[in-house]
Write a structure and sequence with these properties.
heterodimer; A: mainly alpha; 9 helices; 0% strand; B: alpha/beta; seven-stranded mixed beta sheet; four-stranded antiparallel beta sheet; 7 helices; 11 strands
């Protein structure tokens, strides 16, 4: 009996430590968001040109260079979802609902998540390893010694550029998967494009704009803040760089999924409340 | 637009009860009290691993001790934010024993970075200053190469020169002579003497194991031992340190 209590005690302790560690990590990441924004505002020396050049480079690497991969994913997702929706809704006799269905699946759920995963895989890893190497090579210390705050010079432009890239990529993903998906599957279905477009427009609500910006902008922020944080957590040795890069991917994926799930849950709870169900 | 007024003036540097240890290691500084000699070239000596680099990094504001006070002109800079400490930081040049060059910028851009970022002097003047330094040290061939593509000697030199382009009042150098080569070393020492003659680099703190290199300066010695800092008398006639 005593050993059972000891076992339970140990497990509760481990759970407590796990929760505390994660809360502490989240608070540290949030603190870095605040400090980097504060540094960017207070940094009188950092000129507009300096910050714009770093932001535009980030948009180029994260947004522009990801377009081929996002295009393939958007067309594949769009084709599959359009085809499956049409086939199943026709069986149920609800073809006119296809617009609502696609908006929910692609714009609200699949788009933000898939774009975030692409950006984590391509740019989150790149940012974490770049900053990790800078740390190991003492470049971050060098910036500090020159009176350049790494939070305003390195972190802030990457986060801002990342957020802009993710929002633009998500917009591109949505349009391409909804329109491109329809045309790719045209030889398998005979729905008129005007009917399809009309259904999409009817299915689109102002809440979707809110969800689009909330999910994509915060996902972008999560990915780049977590990646920068992990990169900066390198102490001295280059051997830590692959470790922090892996950790950046794992943490970004978890945070993005939890965030998307939370937004979706809150949105549907709000809808149920408006309908008087809860 | 030039911003020279943003640079602080450093008249004195003093430690009071400073304790510093790296994570999981025994303290390198233990309740240390010390007023650093100013207007001198100060040779920081100590056994390997006894905290010379750490002491220099604290002086440059790159490391924060766990406890104590670090006064610059009677102001405790350890309580200051990055922005509050900035005027002093701009007056302090720091060079690394290894690494430190920004890897995605050329040597020229590395040297230009502090001047272009802080806009202390007009851009054309900044360019002329950097081009002058590059010419003096005859590294024009490598000026537009990134650090990974240049010899180690030039990398080390570029790191040293980047601290000088701001013409700071305080120069903190960690093992500056290592890997520099004899000719470059003499040119570098001449350049430091020239700058000191022009009123810059008033206070120099450096660690080195190279007695030949140090004999090119009229130095004072401070010694790190058992977490404390001591000043030692130096016979400038013989360039010998008396314990």
């Amino acid at each position: 009996m005593g050993s059972l209590w000891a076992e339970i005690d140990a497990r509760v302790c481990a759970l407590g430590q796990f929760v505390t560690k994660n809360i502490e990590y989240t608070l540290r990441v949030l603190l870095m968001v605040y400090l980097s924004m504060r540094a960017a505002v207070l940094d009188q020396a950092q000129g507009f040109r300096t910050i714009v050049s770093v932001i535009s480079a980030q948009i180029y690497f994260t947004g522009w260079q990801a377009l081929p991969l996002v295009s393939v994913m958007a067309l594949a997702t769009g084709s599959v979802v359009v085809l499956q929706s049409m086939a199943n809704l026709s069986l149920l006799g609800g073809t006119q609902m296809i617009g609502n269905f696609l908006i929910v699946i692609i714009v609200r759920e699949a788009g933000p998540l898939l774009v975030a995963l692409v950006v984590i895989a391509r740019s989150g890893t790149a940012v974490a390893s770049e900053i990790g190497n800078m740390r190991a090579n003492r470049e971050i210390e060098a910036l500090e010694s020159m009176g350049i705050n790494p939070l305003s010079f390195i972190v802030f432009p990457r986060v801002l550029g990342g957020v802009i890239s993710v929002v633009c990529l998500a917009f591109y993903f949505n349009i391409l998967s909804l329109i491109g998906g329809f045309f790719i599957t045209k030889f398998l279905q005979d729905m008129p494009f005007s009917f399809y477009l009309d259904s999409l427009m009817r299915g689109f609500a102002k809440e979707d704009v809110f969800i689009f910006f909330a999910k994509n902008s915060f996902s972008g922020m999560i990915i780049f803040v977590v990646s920068c944080y992990q990169g900066l957590s390198v102490k001295k040795s280059p051997h830590e760089v692959p470790q922090v890069t892996t950790q950046a991917v794992v943490n970004s994926v978890i945070y993005v999924i939890v965030f998307n799930l939370t937004v979706t849950t809150l949105f549907y709870l709000n809808q149920l409340q408006n309908l008087g169900v809860v | 637009m030039a911003n020279e007024g943003r640079i602080g003036k450093v008249d004195s540097m003093k430690f009071e009860h400073v304790t510093f240890s790296h994570e999981g290691q025994s303290p390198l500084l233990q309740n240390a009290d010390f007023e650093f000699p100013m207007n001198e070239v100060v040779w920081v000596k100590g056994t390997e691993g006894h905290g010379k680099s750490t002491l220099l990094q604290i002086l440059a504001g790159l490391l924060v001790p766990q406890s104590g006070f670090f006064y610059v002109n009677d102001q405790n800079v350890l309580e200051m934010s990055f922005e509050e400490f900035l005027p002093y930081r701009l007056a302090i040049g720091y060079t690394f024993d290894y690494g430190g060059l920004i890897s995605n910028r050329t040597v020229y851009d590395n040297l230009m970075l502090p001047l272009a970022y802080h806009k202390i002097i007009p851009m054309n003047e900044a360019k002329a200053r950097v081009e002058g330094i590059i010419k003096t040290f005859e590294i024009e061939k490598f000026a537009h190469e990134r650090p990974a593509h240049i010899p180690g000697r030039v990398r080390k030199l570029a790191c040293l020169l980047r601290a000088l382009v701001m013409e700071p009042q305080v120069l903190v150098m960690d093992d500056p002579s290592v890997g520099l080569g004899q000719d470059t070393l003499y040119t570098f020492v001449d350049y430091i003497h020239k700058m000191r003659g022009e009123g810059h680099l008033k206070h120099i703190f450096m660690s080195s194991y190279d007695e030949k290199y140090m004999s090119l300066f009229n130095y004072q010695v401070i010694h790190l031992d058992d977490g404390q800092i001591y000043q030692q008398a130096v016979d400038h006639e013989k360039k010998v340190v008396h314990l």
